[in-house]
Design brief:
heterodimer, A: 179 residues, Arp2/3 complex 21 kDa subunit ARPC3, two-stranded antiparallel ribbon, 6 helices, 65% helix, globular, B: 391 residues, alpha+beta, 6-stranded antiparallel beta barrel, 19% strand
């Protein structure tokens, strides 16, 4: 069986650079830090509750491995953990971030994700995907009230893209080359 | 490439999403909150957040307390101004509250007493520095007339001297020209309270025989036709023996030096005097111990003897007066005189001669003139028996 990370890749495509990874401990610390800050910051900065730091981490980690299953699992674990910190049913963020992780990892097979600009744009795009799936799940599947505000979503999309532009290069400093 | 190899990742995604959808459906249908999973997540995140919270507070406190002090001076000055303003307001509120409490006390007293009164405010003092006068904001228009009594809840204050249309001049009871008929609450003795120009007032015309105790309450007697009977006046502070009468000093209850609101009695009604305190009976000291008239004689307590009956007269001395009486009787006897039986024309016994020596009640007749000592001056004066021991 062929490795999953090369599934669907065009033989004419330019070979991607050797992926560089985070230390497993650093990966875990990054995920936990994102979840902690997600509940910590709104206590001091109320507008920080509009941010989705776990989403940024999912995008970042999923784009590193260039492995679809790992990206999907990263999204699943972080999403379910985020669900555990909310009062909503478990699975809402799990599903959305599973899909985002899958999509990011799949896309990283075709697009060079080491470019800050590309990752920033993709982060903004996947924020919109995340929001769309979230609205569908909460409003459509669970039938609960959810405020759909495209203008605010677009603004937050830009904010997350900007954050990715700043944060991802900082996180790249702790990456190491795959052995 | 097989079908599964081609759609391996997609199948994994569908499986992961599908499982979570099943989980969602299970939670919604069973209303299960997945407590265990939430506890795990919270247990992992909460300690980190506690640390973050403590660190943030520490840093924030250090930053705002020691680094970020821009505007602190301006803020301090603004706060100082605010504090001064609040202090002033607080002072005004306290003053209003105190005035309200005083008025409430007066109104309560006004309802309690039988006399009809009107409330008046003290708007000034008298122009004479040597007199104790006040000016009230009520006058003839309000029914205030000269001679009306002025009281507060603590006691009487004074009387209206002159009434004008919108004000009145009143004389306080501690003024030297002021007077009020008073009665002592315990002894029910009447007197005249006169001001002295000081805090203490004098109660005059109380006989020396009247026993007045310190702290006794003084009430109005109603005899001056100004103050109704039974109003509290003050308390006796000291009692001195005067020339014709006792000098009894009393301090008025009313705060005469800080009056703000008073009641003017426009229709006086006498009050009931409070009941007298029970008087303590006079204490008689016990008799002094009996002295044996002869050595070895023992005396026992018995019924008091009748001194007029010589048979029942006790042998031992009873009092100091008895001892003095016996001494002079002995002196007179030593000179051959029995007291009360002296002959007309005979001189009185010389009591300065001193008491005779015990057992020498009758003087021995001098047999011979004692020889004067060599060099001693001779004297023709009669020898005087002395009690001093002879050499």
């Amino acid at each position: 069986m062929m490795p999953s990370r090369v599934v669907g890749r065009s033989p004419l495509a330019k070979p991607l650079r050797q992926p560089t990874l985070l230390h497993p401990g650093a990966t875990l610390a990054l995920a936990i830090s994102a979840l902690s800050l997600q509940v910590f910051l709104p206590a001091y900065i109320p507008s920080a509750r509009l941010l989705d730091l776990p989403l940024l981490v999912v995008v970042y980690l999923a784009s590193l491995r260039r492995h679809v299953l790992i990206g999907m699992l990263v999204g699943l674990v972080i999403g379910v953990a985020q669900d555990g910190l909310t009062h909503g049913p478990i699975g809402i963020f799990g599903i959305t971030k599973t899909i985002v992780g899958y999509a990011v990892a799949s896309l990283s097979l075709y697009v060079e994700m080491d470019y800050p600009g590309a990752r920033s744009v993709l982060t903004g795009f996947f924020f919109l995907v995340h929001q769309t799936v979230f609205w569908l799940l909460v409003g459509g599947l669970l039938g609960r009230h959810v405020s759909v505000d495209p203008a605010r979503a677009l603004m937050l999309c830009a904010v997350h893209a900007g954050l990715a532009l700043v944060l991802f290069p900082a996180l790249d400093r702790s990456r190491r080359t795959t052995p | 490439m097989s079908f599964w190899a081609r759609y391996y990742n997609t199948a994994a995604l569908i499986l992961a999403v599908g499982l979570q959808l099943v989980l969602l459906g299970y939670q919604v249908r069973r209303d299960d909150d997945m407590t265990l999973l939430r506890a795990w997540t919270m247990g992992a995140i909460a300690p980190i957040n506690k640390g973050l919270h403590s660190s943030f507070d520490f840093v924030a406190e250090g930053w705002t307390g020691y680094v970020w002090l821009i505007g602190a001076r301006d803020e301090n000055e603004q706060l100082q101004r605010d504090l001064d303003k609040v202090r002033l307001e607080n002072q005004e509120l306290r003053r209003d509250l105190a005035q309200l409490q005083r008025e409430q006390t007066l109104i309560s007293y006004q309802e309690r007493i039988a006399s009809k009164t009107i409330l008046a405010e003290v708007i000034g003092g008298g122009a004479n520095a040597n007199s104790k006068e006040i000016i009230l904001n009520r006058g003839r228009r309000d029914g205030v007339l000269p001679g009306m009594a002025i009281v507060v809840a603590d006691g009487i204050v004074g009387k209206v001297l002159a009434a004008y249309p919108g004000s009145a001049l009143a004389l306080l009871i501690d003024d030297a020209d002021s007077g009020a008929g008073v009665i002592l609450a315990d002894s029910r003795v009447r007197g005249l309270l006169r001001g002295q120009g000081e805090r203490e007032c004098l109660i005059d015309y109380v006989e020396h025989e009247v026993k007045v105790s310190i702290g006794e309450e003084v009430l109005t007697s109603g005899e001056d036709r100004i103050f109704p009977k039974g109003l509290p006046v003050g308390r006796v502070t000291r009692v001195e023996s005067g020339t014709d009468f006792q000098e009894i000093y009393a301090v008025p209850y009313a705060p005469l030096d800080r009056l703000d609101e008073v009641l003017v009695i426009v229709e006086g009604v006498h009050e009931e005097l409070p009941p007298r305190r029970p008087q303590l009976p006079e204490t008689l000291l016990p008799l002094p111990p009996l002295e044996p008239s002869a050595p070895g004689e023992t005396l026992t307590e018995a019924a008091p003897p009748d001194d007029r009956n010589p048979a029942q007269r006790p042998q031992g001395l009873l009092t100091d007066a008895d001892r003095i009486k016996k001494r002079y009787r002995d002196i007179a006897a030593s000179q051959g005189v029995r007291l009360g039986e002296a002959k007309i024309g005979a001189g009185p016994p010389d009591f300065n001669a001193g008491a005779p020596v015990e057992g020498e009640t009758e003087p021995a007749a001098p047999t011979a003139e004692p020889a004067p000592a060599p060099g001693a001056p001779t004297s023709s004066a009669p020898a005087v028996a002395t009690s001093e021991p002879q050499p």
